[in-house]
């Protein structure tokens, strides 16, 4: 199976230097608090678009006192462990920029890695996803969409850009040029509908992926998108929704100018998850139930991705096992095996991973070093 076979780190958080080979199985990292387990997962997550699983500034990722950092992975099989090499480097004079390379050759950016690897993650920072503001849920959905559909990044960026220009025009010192507003609203309508359509495709793929999960181990979930465009696309043709959105924007100029921002559009949409066994919205569920729903969603996303492309799937699951009872830990281990993905799992205690047995390569993490457990 194609998987991460080697990880190299230079000056990444608590790691001065690491060069670790893996045998292609999932990887279990255990060690005390602060030993560097999450740092390692974060380093891998930086080989994907965005700011990684902590959404951190690169200046925080860089080891204190160093002036740059580097992360590299080799993806490959038993026969050829170094089939593809992906790396990023951040260095002066542009320390907030990642230079991406594929097989040593400069790449346009971390977006280029999507052709070689699909990554998803779940961390304790996402535990409040269902109770916090809609922006976190949109980000969760958009990240998932991005791993399936690269055009989503362009459509989102085009939408944001046009929206910001329109906001500036509406709130500027001079009265805005109506022709400019029409151009920007046309761009917003076009890209906004593309964003909404991509999110709908992800939600549908999540629902399909969820059905395929082993019955009973994770709670039943329903995923619905709330938003003018997403709901419109469920019943009308994209061209009609686009025209209606453009009309709303044109009619809402005064209202948006007063508010200082656009009051309608995909930047206001939300993702609603329902625990179907309890017929309750996820936000009302217990902490453990919410965690199980979240894990289910991430696994469903991975299952959808696996059906769609032939790049290796990497799941970074930070402190997930600790939240699951023994039955669910065993189910998680089975599902990961069925999905054929390589998971990197962390936890403070090795016993949490008994269910993995020989399915995973286990390491003890301590102050920037990894020691394989026998
Ligand atoms: N930029 C940095 N430079 C040097 N060390 C850093 C940097 N950022 C974080 N650290 C150190 O990394 C350690 C935290 O590592 P990490 O979050 O990976 O721990 P962990 O093993 O996941 O712990 P826990 O079980 O508590 O979640 C802290 O001791 C912190 O001081």
Summarize the structure.
By secondary structure, the chain is of the alpha/beta class. The chain is built from ten helices and 15 strands.
Describe this structure in words.
Residues 23-367 form the AAA+ ATPase domain. It is found in: Cytoplasm. This is DNA replication and repair protein RecF. With 374 residues, the chain is of the alpha/beta class. It folds into 2 domains: 3-117 and 311-372, Rossmann fold; 140-198 and 227-266, no CATH class. It contains 10 helices and 15 strands. The protein has a 6-stranded antiparallel sheet with strand order 2-1-4-5-6-7. Helix 6 runs antiparallel to helix 7 (238-251). The model has no long low-confidence stretch (mean pLDDT 93). Adenosine-5'-triphosphate is lined by residues 13-14, 31, 33-39, 60, 62-64, 348.
Mean pLDDT: 93
Q: Which strand order spans the largest sheet, edge to edge or round the barrel?
A: 2-1-4-5-6-7
The distinct bound ligands, ions and cofactors come out as: adenosine-5'-triphosphate
Low-confidence stretches: none
Report the principal-axis shape.
globular
Counted by DSSP, the helix tally is 10
Order of helices and strands: EEEHHEEEEEHHHEHHHEEHEHEEE
